């Protein structure tokens, strides 16, 4: 897989991150209650492909229901640029609209029925694999 470094953050700039993944993003559009309210679209990466560069002290966390998903957002501007999804607690869901311009080549959007979360997870054969470390072209795991 072709891997590039994307950078991004919240609206006010207090939270900044970098993420190593393909320039061709596979984005989920979920219709669960919170994703609908926030219009949350996200792509999933393994934890070791994500680095919070600044702003850990400016993040607050919201959880509900099973308390597996950790919805982190900036205390100053309220933007959620990434979070820990219930589907992939070993990774991050990153908002493509919070990436800095210039590194995304294409975006494919897949609808995910979060209203029927358990059924949708059983039906989706590869979503859990998206947060597992991938082998790069050099045969190593991780971004570089």
**What string gives the helices and strands in order?**
EEEHEEEEEEEH
The rough form would be described as: globular
Largest sheet: 5 strands, mixed
Number of helices: 2
Strand content range: 35-45%
Report the strand count.
10
Spatial gap, N to C terminus: 13 Å
Strand order of the largest sheet: 8-9-4-3-10
Identify low-pLDDT runs. none
- Average pLDDT level: 86
Oligomer: single chain
Defining key terms:
10 strands; 144 residues; three-stranded antiparallel β-sheet; globular; mainly beta; five-stranded mixed β-sheet
How are the secondary structure elements laid out?
Elements: E1 4-9, E2 16-21, E3 24-30, H1 33-38, E4 41-46, E5 50-54, E6 59-62, E7 71-74, E8 82-83, E9 91-94, E10 106-112, H2 117-123
Parallel strand pairs: 3-10
Antiparallel strand pairs: 1-2, 2-5, 3-4, 4-9, 6-7, 8-9
What's a quick, concise take on this entry?
By secondary structure, this protein is mainly beta. It is 9% helix and 35% strand.
Protein model, in words:
This protein is mostly beta strands. The radius of gyration is 15 Å and the shape is globular. 9% of the residues lie in helices and 35% in strands. Strands 8-9-4-3-10 form a 5-stranded mixed sheet, with no helix packed on it. A 3-stranded antiparallel sheet has the order 1-2-5, with no helix packed on it. The longest helix has 7 residues, at 117-123. The mean pLDDT is 86. The chain has helices at 33-38, 117-123, and strands spanning 4-9, 16-21, 24-30, 41-46, 50-54, 59-62, 71-74, 82-83, 91-94, 106-112. The chain has 2 helices and 10 strands.
């Amino acid at each position: 897989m072709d891997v590039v470094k994307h950078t991004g953050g919240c609206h006010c700039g207090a939270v900044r991150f970098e993420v190593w993944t393909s320039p061709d993003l596979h984005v989920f559009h979920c219709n669960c209650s919170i994703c609908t309210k926030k219009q949350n679209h996200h792509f999933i990466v393994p934890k070791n492909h994500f680095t919070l560069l600044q702003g850990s002290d400016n993040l607050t966390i919201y959880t509900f229901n099973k308390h597996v998903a950790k919805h982190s957002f900036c205390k100053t501007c309220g933007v959620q640029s990434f979070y820990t999804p219930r589907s992939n607690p070993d990774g991050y869901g990153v908002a493509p609209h919070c990436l800095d311009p210039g590194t995304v080549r294409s975006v494919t959007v897949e609808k995910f029925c979060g209203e029927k979360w358990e059924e949708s997870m059983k039906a989706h054969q590869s979503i859990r694999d998206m947060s597992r470390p991938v082998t790069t072209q050099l045969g190593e795991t991780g971004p570089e």
